[in-house]
Amino acid sequence: MVKDIPADVAYIGGVWTEGVLYGIHIIVYFTLCYIFTSRAYTRGRETSSRILLTYSTIMFALSTTHAGLAVRELMDGFVYALPSTPGGPPVYYRENVFPKRKAIYIFNTLLGDSLLVWRVFVIYGRSWAITAPSILLLIGTTITGLKTVAANVMSEHSSVFDPSILSWVTSTFVLTIATQLLATTLIAYRIYAASRPFSYIPPSDPNGAANANANVNGNGNENSDESGENGSGSGGSGSKTKKGSNRVEIMGGEVDRQQRAKYLSLVWLVVESGSVYTGAALVQLITYLLNMNAG
């Protein structure tokens, strides 16, 4: 059996970790404010910049309130409520749900999930068909999240592992993890698809097709050797790389390798950020289901 830690020790560790992450959040938030108010960035995308700035401000305000309540609850358990709590801080933190802070956490989670779904909607050209599964998961998360808030309020002085709360908390975590996984996968795939080589012949060039075939097949010994290496004959099609060039030619089109590397780095950035959040939520869900204070 996994060894657990006392509830008061878990709470102190949680508040300390939250303080560190909140400090990082302050730096990130004001950096985003500078970016989203810069004319060099917002020119041509004023609407999306306003949406992102509004979301960031609301989420920062909620995070600030959450951190403040955590400090207050820490003082309550170890100072103000200590004389009236039989068993001391371990019992105080295990037998109180702290509904205000839990509600802020859930609302912040819903805001983050809705922003991610909005990104899927925008990056796929406002396609409702592709975004529909993510929207349904978001609606489910909203319903279970609100039910969790209501259950916390009704059972304020019950155990955090009370069965009336456990089922709704579990559903909320499962749905938000599913939303994160689906939306992150869709966004990462879209960016990856945009980085792939593509076929392109300029419509303004009537001889484009002939030029493309000439680039690929050629009519000299050097081009014949290259065609053989690519597995295509004199009438086939294929791809080749110019010597001394950083561009790949695909049937007359060109994809810059440096640009492709930038796209792939964005893919990894999206995947990593999604993995951090999903991993943290998964650990919290598992420890909660095991009735462990560490969660």
Which class best fits the helix and strand makeup? mainly alpha
Strand order of the largest sheet: 1-2-3
Strand percentage: under 5%
Main sheet overview:
3 strands, antiparallel
What value does the Rg take, in angstroms?
27 Å
> Percentage of helical residues?
over 70%
Please provide the ordered H/E string of secondary-structure elements. Answer: HHHHHHHHHEEEH
- Chain-averaged pLDDT: 80
Number of extended strands: 3
Q: Per the principal axes of the C-alpha atoms, what is the gross shape?
A: elongated
Q: Terminal Cα separation, in Å?
A: 16 Å
List segments where confidence is low: pLDDT < 50 over at least 5 consecutive residues.
Answer: 218-254
Instruction: Please count the helical segments.
Output: 10
Keywords:
295 residues, mainly alpha, 3-stranded antiparallel sheet, 10 helices, 3 strands, elongated, transmembrane, membrane, transmembrane helix
